[in-house]
Amino acid sequence: MFNLLDVVLLVLSILFLWNILQKKHNILRTYPIIGHLRFIAENSGIYLRRFFYARDREELPFNRSERNWVYDASNNVEPIVGFGSTRDLKPINTIYFVDAPFPMQSQDAVKTRPVTIGQHCDFPYTTSSLINISAMSFGAISKNAILALSQGAKMAGCWLNTGEGGLTQYHLESGCDLVAQIGTAKFGYQDENGHLSDEKLKNMAAFPQVKMIEIKLSQGAKPGKGGLLPRNKVTPEIAKIRGIKPYQDAISPNRFSEISNSSELLDFIHHIRTLTGKPTGFKIVLGNYDWLDDLCQEIKKRGLDFAPDFITLDGAEGGSGAAPMSLIDYMGLPISESLPVLVDKLKEYGLRERIKIIAAGKLITAGMVAWALCVGADFVNSARGFMFALGCIQALRCHKNTCPTGIATHNLWLMRGLDPKDKAVRVYHYVKNLEYEVGLICHSCGVHEPRELKRHHVRVVSEHGKSISLADIHPDNSVSHQ
Question: Which residues contact 255 (CB under 8 A, 6 or more apart)?
Answer without folding.
Answer: 184, 217, 226
